[in-house]
Each structure stands twice: as C-alpha cells, then as structure tokens.
Amino acid sequence: AMDGTEGAAPAAEGKVGEEEEDDFGYRLFPDRNKKPQSFLVRSLFTFHNRCQLMLRMTLDTNPYAQLLLEAMKQSGCTVFNDRHFSCENCDGCVSGGFDSATSQIVLCQNNIRQQSHMNRVVTHELIHAFDHCRAHVDWFKNVKHLACSEIRAANLSGDCTLMNEIARFKFGLKGHHQTCVRDRAIRSILAVRKVSKETAEKAVDEVFDACFNDLEPFGRIPHSKTDAKRAYRDFQNRDRYNANL
C-alpha cells in the first residue's frame, strides 16, 4: 500500500538541464541516488511488508477468516482487503482493533510476529466487524453491546482453544473455556474503555449466557482449524440449500 513517493521527487528539480546528458540511465533506478533510508525506517517498512504478507496468507487460507468474510458478504457487508484492513504501528501490547467509525480493522504490525497470531487477530476483529454489520452495535455508549461482541470474539476466534491456554499455563479444565472467554472479554473492554473493572465484569456477566451461546456465523465453537473448516463447509452448504428453496 505504500508507494514511497512522498517527498522523493521534488528535490531533483532545478538542475535537470545539466544532468540530462550524463544521466547514464540512472533514471531507471530512482533509488540509486537517494540517501539510504535510516535503519529505523527500513525496519518499519519490513514490519509493514510482513504484516501485509501475513494478512494475505490469513485471508487466503484460514477457514475462520474465510467463513467470516463469506458471512459478511451475505449480510451485505463485503470486506475489501485494501480498504478494510490497515497495518499500523500500535502502542503497548495491543495486537489489533476494530474502528467502527471507518469499519476498518487495524492490525498492529509491530506486535504481530507469527502467522498463527495474525490468524487469531484477524478472526477476532472480523467477529467484531460481523457484529457491526448485522446488528446495530452501540460500541461507545452501551458497554453491554461491547461486552457481547468481546465475548463472541473470544469464544469463536480460537483465542481460548485449549492449546493457546495450555501455552498460558492454565490447567483448570472444568468450565475452563467459559472462564477464559469471560477473562478475555473483561480484559478487552478495559483495554479500550475507561471503565472500572467492576463495570466491565458486570456488563460481561449480564450478557454472558446469551452472547456465549450466539455462535453465528460458525454454528459451533470452533476449537481447532478442523472445526473451523467444517463450519465453513456447513455454512457454504446451508447457503446452497437456501438458494435452492
């Protein structure tokens, strides 16, 4: 998405006349005579490139993301990669966000290092985008709306699958998935809103059952890629079935 033209060209103006004859074809390699970019700029650009490549990979191959993209298209909200995703540098340790004002998903290129992490962040944020598309979510004034979408995002994105949790050393298995979803939803609310922990907990607990059991568009809790693939297949079949009615 970066075209690198900002501020590059005008510097050469003015002395075109005398340089024309001994240009030696250098104009074909415009970067040759530019000052080398600082290490910082170069490494930020590679962050950006890596983010774009990983995003492309997620959208092309990840069944969680593919199902959500398809579901959004059916709800009348087609997602365009260049318009609805933005790789940016973020503060602190956030990995991504959904900007409801622009319907844009922000991916934190400085904090997403692995493809598996990118898959989860894109899926998590696409669930918010899906909720935004199908329901009139009041993201800012109604903390229960936000809580509901955060519960769904934690439940359905793979954030709380057993392997991810074992990696975080939580072994209490009974009710473990619910506990993880609740904790993550509360943490997410506190990260994006200036509300007290009590307010966040109360909002999550009030809507928990309804939102935890809202499995759209997956139809099941996808505990693994295999589950997600199956859900995606079912979704496509359900669609064909409806088309035949």
Automatic annotation (TrEMBL):
It is an enzyme of class 3 (hydrolase). One of its GO terms (cellular component) is mitochondrion. It comes from the Eukaryota. Transmembrane segments: none annotated. Its EC number is 3.4.24.-. InterPro entries: Peptidase_M76_ATP23 (IPR019165). This is Mitochondrial inner membrane protease ATP23. Keywords: Hydrolase, Metal-binding, Metalloprotease, Protease. One of its GO terms (molecular function) is metalloendopeptidase activity. GO terms for biological process: mitochondrial protein processing; mitochondrial proton-transporting ATP synthase complex assembly. Signal peptide: none annotated.
